[in-house]
Fold this protein.
Amino acid sequence: MKIHLPNSAFLGNIDPFLRGFDPSMPDFLEITANQKWISVHPVVLSMIAALGVSIKASKIRFERLEAKSKHYLLRMGLFKILNVSSDINIVEHEPAGRFIPITQIRTSSELTKFITEMIPLLHLEPEQAKTIGYIVSELGRNVIEHANSMYGAFLCAQYYTKSNTIRIGIADRGVGIKTAINQSYSVKTDLEAIQLALWPGITGTTRREGGTEQNAGAGLFFIKSIAGVNRDFFIIYSGDAFYKLLRKPSTSRLNLRADPFKERHSTDDDLPYWGGTVVGIDINLDQTKEFSFLLDAIRKTYTSAIRERRKSRYRKPRFI
Amino acid sequence: MKHIVIFDRAGAFAENKDVARDIRIKEILPILAQDEEVTLDFDKVDAATQSFVHALISDILRKYGGNTLDHIFFKSCNITVQKIIGIVVEYMQEGMGVEGDQGDGF
């Protein structure tokens, strides 16, 4: 496998980075990088960690970094999680208020511990802490419960002062969304699976309305809605498909849609194959809506989606 | 009336679904099975995820129907927690339909 750390890869311009990923030769990982400057979304680092975890350090070739910003990769724990050495020396400071290094989460209790420790580190206002904690919890539990990955989830986050934004990335090398959804549905493509997974009330664990006792099929819809209401980016990549919720203009009305393809979005269904799932999200803290406002919007959309789904199953009169 | 303190089990951010399942199976269901009422006390819980609340009460609503809400009381919920509970209760009842609202009763 080959992956290149570009000069810039954030959710708005991440597409070329994803297209450049080469999944061939899965027992070998070569990481190259822009020689001048590397500025990437945490989701990029989560992906590399997820790729590298199953590969022996001796089979990982990490190109010598020349970029001035190379210390960022060290501070985010990339070399440590890949178990490869680097010649970068920095004085480490306490990470409080700035970033969450790449963390591997395999169990429910590890996730709870991670969230408990993470929220104070980010020094957020209570409303913002609720939003970030919510996102991390739901994304982490999705991996633990549905990905069937022996390596769990790789998660990291970074606070960006200039834009007052928290960017979060999570990646796994599990079964992917299509396999998970196809336990109960019959989808042919990864993109179709992503579309279904983002609908409220759709879960791979059952077709029954309301879900199972442990799963409602609401987690990803909530996360997409949080990004939508806050006018932020959200991406999801699984198999060869990619969905990006685009930022809504500040002048547009905030309407949540049950169908993710009716939101302002872009898709790609011909990307290099990612065996597993990748999710990235930005949360701009300047415009973080109150969580309770967000929940009002979610409730309205969710309930109406179920009602529509039920109505579509009603038997119709036959007029002859 | 039995009283269950959520904070003692799940902390200020109630998100661990395994904990929610344990509360449901080991505490709430046995109380309801004895035709008793139960109070779920969310005092000091700042936030709860939809997944947590779903794991806590959805199966109860499915088994006993919407009428079971006459036997469950949600105490000291802040506005966020109230809304999360409201969403779960609403989509479960919408999903079950009118016939499901009757439930098995007590």
About this structure: Helices of chain B lie at 6-10, 17-33, 50-64, 79-100. DSSP finds four helices and five strands in chain B. Confidence is low (pLDDT under 50) at residues 98-106 of chain B. Chain B touches chain A at residues 11, 13, 15-18, 21, 24, 46-47, 49-51, 54-55, 58-59, 62, 79-80, 83-84, 86-88, 90-92, 94-97 (CB under 8 Å).
